Amino acid sequence: MTSVDVPHSSRSAVLTVSDVIEETADTKSVVFAIPDDLRDRFTYKPGQFLTLRIPSDRTGSVARCYSLASSPFTDDLPKVTIKRTADGYGSNWVCDNIAVGDTMEVLPPSGVFTPKSLDDDVLLFGAGSGITPVISILKAALSQGRGNVVLVYANRDEKSVIFADELRELAAKHPTRLTTIHWLETVQGLPTAQQLARLVAPYTAYHSFMCGPGPFMDTVHAALAALDVPRARVHAEVFNSLAGDPFTDSAPAELTEEDEAGAATVDVELDGEIHHLKWPRKQTLVDIMLAKGIDVPYSCQEGECGSCACTVIEGKVQMDNTEILDPEDIENGYILGCQSHPVTDHLRIEF
């Protein structure tokens, strides 16, 4: 029995596991009950993720991000799906230990891997457990949108296909809108960029979303580039293991008068509201927004999860860690709020 009683930070909450579903031999889904007083905090968009606090004998705990495989429109409760990996401490711990009735500490939903409009035609790529955020988008688009949905789903073999029954049911329910293309390594080998480009050539006007192992996503990127799909219509979800602890409240850095005097100014648009702020050069954008009590989206504060991604509309920043962003993302003005410091004296930023 795994039990947590009190959250370690003001942002996290303790949730009860209401169901554990064995999806495949090495994959389980964990469903969380959400008390009425936490429903607003745990409202989520399709494609977002939860961050779980997982006990560790060595460090006390580790934080791991797992995508929501549920849809906020068709599923009553949020569900994360976790596949074992050979050296994955978090995934193996969850699959070995979590049971119905256990409690876990969880951060609210986060992430920007979500369509701006569910009416768009979407081309979805998933490999292995990368199907998790993809199926959330797929179900949301089919239930709420009007566009077509094409899914390319790669797996090692037929037994590895997560959500196989659910995908069959959705295909039967939406025969004119959903096209599912399975790619099995045991049958077709690993997909090449040329093969994927031929496969998805009819769908180049669609918005593309991809999640899976790095080599698979590199192949998808190459296929879409060969088809001249604009980078603005290509969205990738990337997770790194979090080294720090997002389940602690971090105190704002102390600033000197010199820091304040040399501060930049920034106009930040978040949820339709514009905030006019001073931005000291030593602090990150997330730091200054938290200090002002603004509910900025963030999770790890290490530049490893992408929760705080936003766009520079005017001005220039310097980032400490850019590993999770593609060079094309940076060229298009995407930044990580938790890693960014102002370079110019005035900036305008949109979340």
UniProtKB/TrEMBL annotation:
<dbReference type="InterPro" id="IPR006058">
    <property type="entry name" value="2Fe2S_fd_BS"/>
</dbReference>
<keyword id="KW-1207">Sterol metabolism</keyword>
<dbReference type="GO" id="GO:0016042">
    <property type="term" value="P:lipid catabolic process"/>
</dbReference>
<dbReference type="GO" id="GO:0051537">
    <property type="term" value="F:2 iron, 2 sulfur cluster binding"/>
</dbReference>
<dbReference type="InterPro" id="IPR050415">
    <property type="entry name" value="MRET"/>
</dbReference>
<keyword id="KW-0285">Flavoprotein</keyword>
<dbReference type="GO" id="GO:0008203">
    <property type="term" value="P:cholesterol metabolic process"/>
</dbReference>
<keyword id="KW-0560">Oxidoreductase</keyword>
<dbReference type="Pfam" id="PF00111">
    <property type="entry name" value="Fer2"/>
</dbReference>
<dbReference type="InterPro" id="IPR012675">
    <property type="entry name" value="Beta-grasp_dom_sf"/>
</dbReference>
<keyword id="KW-0408">Iron</keyword>
<dbReference type="InterPro" id="IPR039261">
    <property type="entry name" value="FNR_nucleotide-bd"/>
</dbReference>
<dbReference type="InterPro" id="IPR017927">
    <property type="entry name" value="FAD-bd_FR_type"/>
</dbReference>
<dbReference type="GO" id="GO:0046872">
    <property type="term" value="F:metal ion binding"/>
</dbReference>
<dbReference type="InterPro" id="IPR008333">
    <property type="entry name" value="Cbr1-like_FAD-bd_dom"/>
</dbReference>
<feature type="domain" description="FAD-binding FR-type">
    <location>
        <begin position="10"/>
        <end position="116"/>
    </location>
</feature>
<dbReference type="InterPro" id="IPR001709">
    <property type="entry name" value="Flavoprot_Pyr_Nucl_cyt_Rdtase"/>
</dbReference>
<dbReference type="GO" id="GO:0036200">
    <property type="term" value="F:3-ketosteroid 9-alpha-monooxygenase activity"/>
</dbReference>
<keyword id="KW-0443">Lipid metabolism</keyword>
<dbReference type="InterPro" id="IPR036010">
    <property type="entry name" value="2Fe-2S_ferredoxin-like_sf"/>
</dbReference>
<keyword id="KW-0479">Metal-binding</keyword>
<keyword id="KW-0001">2Fe-2S</keyword>
<keyword id="KW-0411">Iron-sulfur</keyword>
<dbReference type="Pfam" id="PF00970">
    <property type="entry name" value="FAD_binding_6"/>
</dbReference>
<keyword id="KW-0274">FAD</keyword>
<keyword id="KW-0153">Cholesterol metabolism</keyword>
<keyword id="KW-0442">Lipid degradation</keyword>
<dbReference type="InterPro" id="IPR017938">
    <property type="entry name" value="Riboflavin_synthase-like_b-brl"/>
</dbReference>
<dbReference type="InterPro" id="IPR001433">
    <property type="entry name" value="OxRdtase_FAD/NAD-bd"/>
</dbReference>
<dbReference type="GO" id="GO:0071949">
    <property type="term" value="F:FAD binding"/>
</dbReference>
<dbReference type="Pfam" id="PF00175">
    <property type="entry name" value="NAD_binding_1"/>
</dbReference>
<feature type="domain" description="2Fe-2S ferredoxin-type">
    <location>
        <begin position="264"/>
        <end position="351"/>
    </location>
</feature>
<keyword id="KW-0753">Steroid metabolism</keyword>
<dbReference type="InterPro" id="IPR001041">
    <property type="entry name" value="2Fe-2S_ferredoxin-type"/>
</dbReference>
<protein>
    <recommendedName>
        <fullName>3-ketosteroid-9-alpha-monooxygenase, ferredoxin reductase component</fullName>
        <ecNumber>1.14.15.30</ecNumber>
    </recommendedName>
</protein>
